[in-house]
Amino acid sequence: METIEREDGGRDMDVSGSVPPAKEGGPAAAPADPLAYEGVWRFTVPAVEESVPQARRAVRDLLGRQGVPADRDLVYALLLIVSELVTNSVRHAALLSPQVAVEVAIGREWVRVAVEDNHPYRPKALEADFGQTGGRGLLLVREVTRESGGVCDVEHTSTGGKVIWAALPLAAPAV
C-alpha cells in the first residue's frame, strides 16, 4: 500500500483514500501562518494503467481533506492534468520507470501538481492532428493550464528523469 507523505516525512494518507485517525488530546489549532491547507504531499504508484484513476482519486481526496478553497472547475482541471500526466508516464516511461511519483504542493494562492518518472526524454506538446486518436495529452495539459491562468513546464531531475508540472491559481484569473 502506497502512502502520501508530507515533505517533512510525516504520513498523511494512503493512496486508497483512507485517512489515519485524528490525534486526540492535542491543543486547539490556532490561526497560523501558513494556512491550514498549505503543504506538500508526494506519493508513488506503479507505472500501470490502474494507477491513473488511483492517482486522480488520491489528489481529489487530498484537496477535499485539506479544505483547499478550490472551485469545481479548478478541481476538474487539476484532476484532468494528473490523469494525463500519469497516463503519459505509464504509457511512455514504464520501461525505465516502474514507479511514477505524484506531488501536490498547495500554497496560499496556487496548487501545483507534478508527475515525475525516470525516463530522460523531455516530451513536447503535439499540435492537434485530427487523424490521430491520441498523442495530445500534453497539448491538453498546456491548454487547460493556460485557460485556468496557470503555468506548466517540463524539467529534468538530478537523477536523469523528468518532472512535468502545472501550477494553477486558487482564485479565478482576472479578465
Give a verbal description of the structure.
By secondary structure, the chain is α+β, with helices and mostly antiparallel strands. Helices cover 28% and strands 26% of the residues. The protein has three helices and seven strands. The protein has helices spanning 51-66, 72-93, 137-147, and strands at 3-6, 11-14, 39-46, 99-106, 110-117, 151-156, 162-169. Helix 1 runs antiparallel to helix 2 (72-93) and helix 2 runs antiparallel to helix 3.
Query: How far apart lie the N and C ends?
Result: 44 Å
Q: Which regions are unreliable across 5 or more consecutive residues at pLDDT < 50? A: 1-31
Beta content comes to 25-35%
Helix % is: 25-40%
Q: Structural class given helices, strands, pairing?
A: alpha+beta
Order of helices and strands: EEEHHEEHEE
Largest sheet: 7 strands, antiparallel
Blueprint of the fold:
Elements: E1 3-6, E2 11-14, E3 39-46, H1 51-66, H2 72-93, E4 99-106, E5 110-117, H3 137-147, E6 151-156, E7 162-169
Antiparallel strand pairs: 1-2, 1-3, 3-4, 4-5, 5-7, 6-7
Describe what is shown at a glance.
By secondary structure, the protein is of the alpha+beta class. Helix 1 runs antiparallel to helix 2 and helix 2 packs antiparallel against helix 3.
Features:
7 strands; seven-stranded antiparallel β-sheet; single chain; 175 residues; globular; alpha+beta; disordered N terminus
